[in-house]
Amino acid sequence: MEIRVAVLTVSDRSARGERGDVSGPALASDIINASWRLVETKIVPDDRQAIEQILIEWCNQGTIDIILTTGGTGFSPRDVTPEATLAVIERQAPGIAETMRMKSLLTTPYAMLSRGVAGIRNRTLIVNLPGSPKGAVENLKTIMAVLPHAVELIREDPAAEAGHRKE
Questions:
Q1: 127: which residues sit within 8 A by CB, 6+ positions away?
Q2: Are strands 124-129 and 37-44 parallel, antiparallel or unpaired?
Q3: What integer pLDDT is reported at residue 140 of this predicted model?
Q4: Which residues, given as ranges, of the chain have pLDDT below 50?
Q5: Cβ neighbour number for residue 24 with a 10 Å cutoff
Q6: Which domains does the chain have, with CATH numbers?
Q7: C-alpha 164, offset from chain centre
């Protein structure tokens, strides 16, 4: 099954060209290594309207299974990625964000300061990842094994239920 992924980097400095995007390319590398298809990448500033606009556009295309955002999930007043995501999703997927925070807490207590969320719009799963390359990649690795099944379920693929235990 082909999994089509887009990466959205949320960073004022990267959007202005003051700092190179490191997290986006790090995630792209893991996506390619997983034999998934990277279909879109973009950098936007920490602006709720800009984030919402690109999330809606990408979800409405029908050509992206998973959108990974990186950045804007902390406590700074400019960190609005979770609010933008919550504004556009139709259903939350709290287990994904909870699991990432739980796993990250084994490494650093600062993980509890992450406000990232996950949810579904149309047939696209959106997952907020931290802005640091290390945090973004570690969190993606935490959830990577379940993402193909999540895509199957969202697509309503009949094979999605085949591996479930029959009662």
A1: 66, 67, 68, 69, 93, 96, 97, 116, 118, 143
A2: unpaired
A3: 98
A4: none
A5: 24
A6: 4-157 (3.40.980.10)
A7: 25
Q: Are 68 and 6 in contact (CB under 8 A)?
A: yes
Enter the tokens of residue 9.
Answer: 């980097």
Question: What pLDDT is attached to residue 88?
Answer: 98
Residue 161: the pLDDT is 77
Rg of the chain on CA atoms, in Å = 15
Q: Which two tokens stand for residue 139?
A: 């969190």
pLDDT of residue 42: 98
How far is residue 139's CA from residue 160's CA, in Å, rounded to a whole number?
A: 24
**What is 6-67 written as a DSSP string?**
EEEEE-HHHHTTSS---HHHHHHHHHHHTT-EEEEEEEE-S-HHHHHHHHHHHHHHS--SEE
